[in-house]
Write a structure and sequence with these properties.
The structure is a single chain. With about 350 residues, this protein is an alpha/beta fold. It folds into two domains: about 240 residues, ANL, N-terminal domain (Rossmann fold, 3-Layer(aba) Sandwich), CATH 3.40.50; about 100 residues, ANL, C-terminal domain (GMP Synthetase, Chain A, domain 3), CATH 3.30.300.30. It contains eight helices and 21 strands. Strands 11, 12, 14, 15 and 16 form a five-stranded antiparallel β-sheet that branches. Strands 1-2-13 form a three-stranded antiparallel β-sheet. The longest helix is centred in the N-terminal third of the chain and has 14 residues. The radius of gyration is 20 Å and the shape is globular.
Length: about 350
């Protein structure tokens, strides 16, 4: 079970992708944990739309139905109308989605007349936009019997699903609690020392899902895998009840006049503006402040807003140092096939 079963490549959001070597035991442990925590059983009819080469798409679309005996309806790509029709035609009961997919389905003409009443569970990953309680409430207008929530926190190096959201105790804004058998601790990113509850630091993980290393990259392996712990490079905090909140990638943190700004916290506020469909922010050099925030915005269809007006709105709705200095409108955000925004590609825009 310790032999390498597959090699999945990291998304490359902050650098070149690396091949993470995962064992049969890694896959077995995380598949079982995902099934148990997400209420998956042989009686479910599962819809698989997320790319199967992405670790989450693989677990949800291949491993889970094989492990549980559930029926899997597999679509070769995401098409809003096709997915909407599949939900109705096949009486889908369980669907793992990415937040923009839910938004796109609610915009399909005639969606309100379709019958998605069989759908009972919908774990959602916040790529591109944050899956909020408000969005979940909107989704229930279309799928009235469905419980939807943030899916999990995870990464390729741990065969994903490091946390899961308790369906009877959903806490919005968090990624849920560690799955049984997994340990998550928050450490000082400089010293590696464990930090107290409620303190922001680097997320580290120990458990049976941890990878064996990067293919042909011993130096990168040594930086990430230390004494059985995966040092993720992600910043987060754990509250007194054990819920993990992901804050952002350490490498993507923006330093404005010495203050730390994580792109995700700015983007989460930006998409609350009625004209904003998607948002991504990066740091750009500034002679006075070191860096300032630049925002890239995809507008909602039929909505208009001027850049200056959006900047002014931001200054009213977030701390001044977090507010974008500049807003640029863009037709589409660069993203991986799984929907994860590639902020590094915006540096050249």
């Amino acid at each position: 079970m310790d032999d390498v079963a597959l090699m999945t490549y990291t998304s490359g959001t902050t650098g070149l992708p690396k091949g993470a070597m995962l064992s049969y035991e890694n896959a077995r442990f995380k598949t079982a944990a995902s099934a148990d925590c997400n209420g998956m059983s042989a009686g479910e009819v599962l819809l698989a739309v997320a790319p199967l080469y992405h670790i989450a798409g693989m677990v949800m679309g291949v491993n889970l139905p094989v492990y549980t005996g559930a029926t899997c309806v597999l679509l070769y790509r995401f098409d809003p109308l096709g997915v909407a029709q599949a939900l109705e035609r096949h009486r889908i009961t369980w669907w793992y989605s990415i937040a923009p997919m839910n938004g796109a389905l609610m915009q399909v003409p005639g969606a309100r007349e379709m019958d998605w009443s069989a759908l009972r569970r919908n774990p959602v990953t916040s790529f591109g936009i944050t899956f909020t309680e408000q969005l979940a409430q909107q989704w229930r207008q279309f799928a009235p019997n469905c419980v939807s929530h943030e899916a999990a926190y995870g990464l390729s190096e741990t065969h994903t699903v490091d946390t899961a959201m308790p369906v009877d105790a959903i806490r919005w804004g968090t990624q849920g609690k560690p799955v049984p058998g997994n340990q998550i601790r928050i450490v000082d990113p400089d010293t590696g020392a464990p930090l107290p509850v409620g303190t922001v630091g680097e997320i580290t993980i120990q458990g049976p899902g941890n990878f064996k290393g990067y293919w042909n990259k011993p130096e990168a392996t040594a930086k990430t895998l230390k004494n059985g712990w995966v040092f993720t490079g992600d910043m987060g905090e754990i509250d007194e009840d054990g819920y993990l909140t992901f804050i952002g990638r350490f490498k993507e943190m923006i330093k404005v006049s010495g203050y730390s700004v994580f792109p995700e916290e700015v983007e989460t506020i930006l998409i609350k503006h009625p004209a904003v469909a998607q948002a991504a922010v990066i740091g750009v050099p500034d002679a006075e402040k070191g860096e300032v925030v630049r925002a890239f915005i995809v507008k909602k269809p039929g909505q208009e807003v001027e850049a200056a007006a959006l900047v002014a709105w931001c200054r009213e709705n977030m701390a001044p140092y977090k507010a974008p200095r500049e807003v640029r409108f863009i037709a589409q955000l660069p993203a991986t096939g799984a929907g994860k925004v590639l902020r590094r590609m915006l540096k050249d825009e």
